[in-house]
Amino acid sequence: MTKYLLILLFYVLSTHSMMCADIPDYESHTIIHDGLKRTYLVHFPKNMDKKSRRPLIIALHGGLGNGKRMMELTSYKFNELSDKENFIVVYPDGIGKNWNDGRKNMPGRYKAHNRNIDDVGFISTLIDTMVNYYNVDSTRVFVTGMSNGAIMSQRLAIELSDKIAAAAPVCGNIPEDLESTPKNAVAMMIINGTKDPLVPYDGGYVHFGKKKLGKVCSTDESIKFWVKHNQVKTDPVTTKIENINISDSCNIEKTTYFTPCNCKNVVLISVKNGGHTWPGGKQYLGKKLIGNTNRDIDACQVIWDFFNVQFVSLYD
Fold first, then answer.
1. Are 296 and 279 contacting, i.e. CB atoms less than 8 angstroms apart?
2. What angle, rounded to 10 degrees, do the helices at 299-314 and 77-85 form?
3. Which of 91, 95, 82 is nearest to 54 (CA)?
């Protein structure tokens, strides 16, 4: 009898564990914008105090991706930080698995670009929704993204500077065709690999294989754009991040341009010999295709620290 009780207990506990593992770490939501049904995933912090206003991070996936893949790319670390630091993180989905980030002359299958999808308006509406219904602090709205999502982050920082306090694009510069200028200063941290085989560190055509996917400015030009716009008046400070993982074949140099208020700083995280990858994240394709993934830092933690410090400095 004891044997069968133990088997039953094991079955119950195993089934409970499987059920817990299957409980999603996020919620699926939809809104209608510009006549289109737009979808996004939301991770709310555990034990969230619904009465207090909290920050919002919008994390944008790369081309051919979606919100779920963005979570996987970052190894769900934004969700973990959300629980620890009490912010909300949203993973929107682009139309046709890409964002209309402002590049022109894109191949036909890039629906967001060629149909001129109003992704800026969608994200603006999404921000309003989160502020109005989920008690998000409108002064602490941040955006980050990878690749196509990073270029889109640059566009959003420029065209929604009245709603976005800081941005942290990874593997993405300002699109060369974008003619908009921001109305307000936006704290900016750019994380780019010097050996990125898709989005060139030194600017030019974004490409995958032989396909040309529009042009972007160089990393240096993108940094200078924000340094000028944020009215940085001091010399930059450059430091080398400890190379704690020599097996990743890359290292990091950090350059900070401090603004007078120390709340709209411009930072470059230059991943020397780094590829089209998220530092500390998933190696989603082979090194021959996308290059090295840096393991000296966790980009999610670095990005949150940057966002958080900008806010704290603003109220010092």
1. yes
2. 30
3. 82
Residue 116: CB atoms within 10 A of its CB come to: 9
Residue 5: inside a domain, yes or no?
no
Range of the domain at 44: 25-192+214-236+257-265+295-314
Distances (CA, A) of 12 to 21, 23, 24, 202, 233: 14, 17, 20, 57, 64
Question: Which two structure tokens, joined as six digits, stand for 309?
Answer: 């410090």
pLDDT tens column, 243-253? 999 999 999 99
Q: What whole-number distance in Å separates Cα of residue 129 and Cα of residue 253?
A: 38
pLDDT at residue 315 tops 60: no
Single pTM value for the model: 0.91
Cα separation, 67 vs 57, whole angstroms: 13
Please give the structure tokens belonging to residue 271: 């991943």
Q: Is there a domain that residue 104 lies in?
A: yes
Q: Is residue 204 helix, strand or coil? A: strand
Determine, yes or no, domain membership for 220.
yes
Distance between CA atoms of residues 146 and 19, nearest Å: 32
User: Taking a C-beta distance cutoff of 8 angstroms, is the pair 76, 127 a contact?
Assistant: no
Q: In this structure, what token pair is assigned to residue 156?
A: 């959003």
Question: How many domains, in total, are found in the chain?
Answer: 1
What CATH code is carried by the domain that includes residue 181? 3.40.50.1820
Question: Residue length, the chain?
Answer: 316
**In Å, what is the CA distance from 89 to each residue of 57, 136, 165?**
5, 11, 15
33 within domain boundaries: yes
Return the structure tokens found at 162. Answer: 């009245």
Q: What is the pLDDT of residue 261?
A: 82
| pLDDT for the residue numbered 312 | 59
Please give the Cα distance from 302 to 166 (Å, whole number). 13
Residues in CB range of 227: below 8 A, 6 or more apart: 257, 266
